Amino acid sequence: MAHENWDNVRQLLLTDRSINSCVLLIEMKKNIKYLVCLVIGSILTILLIMLLCNYFVRSNSEGRLYTDIDSIPKYEVGLLLGTTPQTRVSRRANQFFKNRIDAAEYLYKAGKIKSILISGDENSLDGINEVECMKDSLVARGIPKNAFILDGKGFRTLDAVVRATNVYDAHNYVVISQKFHCERAIYLAEHLGLDVHDLIGFNAADATSNMAFLTYIREYFARVKIFIDIFTGKESRSRENTDTESASDVAKPYTTREEKGNLIIYTPNASSR
Predict the structure, then answer these.
(1) Across the chain, what does the average pLDDT equal?
(2) How much of the chain, in percent, has pLDDT values that exceed 70?
(3) 256-260 vs 263-267, strand pairing mode
(4) Nearest by Cα to 73 from 119, 110, 100, 103
(5) Can you state the angle between helices 179-191 and 212-231, rounded to 10 degrees?
(6) Residue 47 backbone phi and psi in degrees, to 5
(7) At what angle do helices 2-60 and 179-191 cross, to 10 degrees?
(8) Contacts made by residues 243-249, CB under 8 angstroms, sequence distance 24+
């Protein structure tokens, strides 16, 4: 009798354990399902935000971006946005750089702009001076040296447009860069409370190298950051007035000069690294 009772108790315990295991398994499945839904929902939300930001930035400059040199109106100033002549990863020739130089040359020689404000990082990519590289590359193509205004504190696109107006007194100008970059620069300039009007862009040719797609992917995130910068009141990293700097002052630490065709590359000496 006692043996039968013990068997019954053991059977009940096993049944209870099975029930608990089933309950735990069901709870785990629910939690996994919840986490999967949360991850998918987060990804979809991020994608939706990126698409909306991209839409607002693109539509803002619709009808104001030019690729035809004959159709673009004449302006006093072209704002050439800086980049390095070499890619950051493989140190190969940067197509974005070359194509922006081409675009600035076309505009100036066609009489569409009278001066070129080059805004970039004076100490980028292991010390390379974007501004001097661009200026000398254009000088090598026959653009006179007195046609340039140099801003080595254009560390980001936000800095470039803020300083173009607040430091160099440019209130309407042609942005010179690739289409995606022109769109972003114009949106920033017009939504940061700057005194600007009638901004347009001249699209340099896009890069077609295998690594260029990384830049295009990055641009979607950069467009989200536009709205973060605007909503948080992000200011330019460098607010000091540098309009008294000369070209030689900007280039002072960069003593190694290398010519590659019509492109000029400055690299720092050992003491400036």
Answers:
(1) 82
(2) 77
(3) antiparallel
(4) 110
(5) 10
(6) -60, -40
(7) 90
(8) 243/167, 243/168, 245/150, 245/152, 247/132, 247/135, 247/145, 247/148, 247/150
Beta strands in the chain, from DSSP E residues, in sequence order: 65-66, 75-81, 113-119, 148-151, 174-178, 200-204, 256-260, 263-267
CA separation, residue 62 to residues 104, 109, 216 (Å): 21, 26, 19
What is the torsional sign of CA 205, 135, 251, 271? positive
The pLDDT of residue 252 is 39
Task: Work out the average pLDDT over 27-56.
Answer: 88
> Could you read off the pLDDT of 177-219 as tens digits, one per residue?
999 999 999 999 999 999 999 999 999 999 988 788 888 889 9
Calculate mean pLDDT across residues 98-104: 96
Q: In 3D, which of 241, 82, 68 has the Cα closest to residue 167?
A: 241
**For the whole model, what pTM was predicted?**
0.77
The CB-based long-range contact list for 45-52 (8 Å cut-off, 24+ gap) reads 49/224, 50/220, 50/221, 50/223, 50/224
